[in-house]
Design a protein that fits this description.
Layout: E1 4-6, E2 13-17, E3 20-23, H1 36-48, H2 50-58, H3 62-87, H4 92-97, H5 99-122
Antiparallel strand pairs: 1-2, 2-3
Helix pairs in contact: 1-2, 1-3, 3-5
Length: 128
């Protein structure tokens, strides 16, 4: 008997161990650090999209998927904060002249951006 075989139907490789062919199962899961946005989306899909979560988990794509969601959400948040600050006239000049006014305005902008990201990325059906 051959030590290694490949099943042409499914493409899996097998190794002969004690007279039995066992599939060569290798995890292709990556090990990205998952930030705040990815963690929140993970909580959402675990609770509200269980089949989707299990599919990602069993296909070893969960970490990559969450990393993509995390990156997309962070980029969107940063872009929105910049655009909203510019649109609302929150500048460095305001920061120098009225520090508390600037802090209040930036907190408001951060909250607006956060809500948009939650709605469009974190709590959406597709995530990415």
């Amino acid at each position: 008997m051959k030590k290694y075989i490949t099943d042409e139907k499914n493409g899996f490789d097998y190794t002969l161990v004690n007279g039995v062919y066992l599939p060569n199962l290798i995890s292709t899961e990556t090990n990205y650090e998952i930030g705040m946005w990815g963690q929140r989306h993970l909580e959402y899909i675990k609770k509200n999209r269980k089949a989707f979560f299990l599919n990602l988990k069993t296909s070893c794509k969960l970490n990559t998927y969450l990393h993509d969601v995390d990156v997309r959400a962070k980029e969107m948040y940063d872009t929105l904060v910049t655009q909203l600050a510019e649109k609302q006239g929150v500048t460095e000049k305001l920061k120098v002249e009225d520090m508390m006014g600037w802090v209040q305005a930036m907190n408001n902008i951060a909250n607006q951006a956060r809500e948009i990201v939650y709605n469009d990325v974190i709590y959406s059906k597709g995530g990415v």
